[in-house]
Every structure is written in structure tokens, then in C-alpha cells.
Design a protein that fits this description.
There is one protein chain. A hairpin with a 7-residue loop joins strand 1 and strand 2. The chain has 245 residues and is mostly helical. Helix content is 59%, strand content 2%. It is flat and about 95 Å long. Among the domains are: 4-63, no CATH class; 102-200, no CATH class. It is built from eight helices and two strands; from the N terminus they run ββαααααααα. It has helices at 31-41, 45-63, 71-76, 102-111, 121-155, 166-183, 191-212, 221-244; strands spanning 4-6, 14-16. The protein has a two-stranded antiparallel ribbon. The longest helix has 35 residues, at 121-155.
Length: 245
Amino acid sequence: MAKYEKNPDDEGKYQCSVCEYGHGPGNGKSRQSVTRHFNKTHAGPEDAAEVTSTRKQSEEASSEPQQKTEPQEASETNEPGWLSMDFSPSEEDEAATVSINKAAKSTLQGMLKNPSSIKSEKELDEFFAQQARMLRWVFAGGIDPALEWWARSVTSDADYTIKRTSSDWAFFEEVAKSWLEYRGIQLPITPDFVMLGTVGAFYAPVFVHVRRKRDPTRPSLWRRWRSRRAIRKALKRQEKEEEAR
């Protein structure tokens, strides 16, 4: 019985041939992970005997002199080890401490879609909806924070914030989608922009999580740099005063 089979949705990934482990888009596993799962969950007496015999054959093959190995096998295993390393998560470390936001992941995946490959009205509608969502990111992540910074400097209110409801943003996306579709505007999304957004989605939650758990008694890097700068200025001023005397 085959222990694993290719996942039809994830290229280069595999799934269990007996249960639902690794099935579905985005859930594909590595061959090693599926094999460990199969041996741990589904291996019966016959499978266990097969695994044991395979292990014995590999040990006997490794104990034979190296002169008996064929040249073709040596050429096939001449690949550097770091190229064949498996970085796929195993079943032991699937619980991630920080995961990409589902909405951000969906938006980034939509950015990869090529407009020239759109063939139906439904795909075209989804494309402009994705464009409107990205335009919302520009306003929510750039314009609103800039307006908050300006308002705080003018009003001297350090706690001034701009809060919008989800229904307001849904209305904004609806209007933006209609406008982009009417004007035929396509936001200039390049692979560089998508890569930058992916890296941001990977590490922005980490910085937010660390900032929330920051030790209040430990000064930030910015404050430490300012304090050291103030000390250096004070020492230079003191040296000049002593030289003037």
C-alpha cells in the first residue's frame, strides 16, 4: 500500500493515501512528514515488518564496501546536501507561534493573478474586488496614519486616533471597485511589491506581539540612543567650557 500520494492542489507536496492528512489546498505535507504520520497512525503488523526489512536492507547496503557502488548512483548522489534539505513543517511542529493573517494571505495571493489570464466575468469581478481591497490598504495603512500624525501635532493630543467601522471600509471597497472597473484602472502591482508585502505579513505580527509584551522598565533603543547622544553633547560642552577657562 502506498503511504503517500501527491497533493493535487499543492505542487511538490504530498498527502496520506488512507486518511485526510495533508488533503486540501494549502495543507500539503512533505513526503517525510506523511511517511512518519502513516507509520505512526496506520502501520499494521505487515507495514511494520516492511519498514523493518527496509531498514535492515539499508543497513546491509551501508556496511558493504564502497567499491561495489555503481558510478551512476554516485553521480546521482553528488548533489549538495543543502539542496535536498526538507524545510517543510513536520507533524511535531505544525503549531505556529505567529501565523500570517488570512485576509493578508488572500490579498497577496490575489496580487499574483495576471489580468491577461482572466477569461470570465466572475474572475474579472474578483480581480477588481481585489484591487479595491488593495486600495483600502493604501488608505488604512498610509493615509489615515499620516492624518493621525498631523492631527496629533496640531491638537497636541497624543491619543488622537482615527477609527472606522468595518461597514465603512466595506462601503469604501464597494465604491472603489465600481470606480476602478469604470475607469479600467489597474494598480501597478509587481512581483517586488508582492514580495515586500509577503515579508511584511511575515514579520509585522512579530513586532506587534513583541511590542505588546515589552518590558516597561526597559527603555527602547530610540530612548537609549537619545540618552547616549545627550550625554555625549553634555561632555563636549563641558570640555569646551574647561578649555575656555
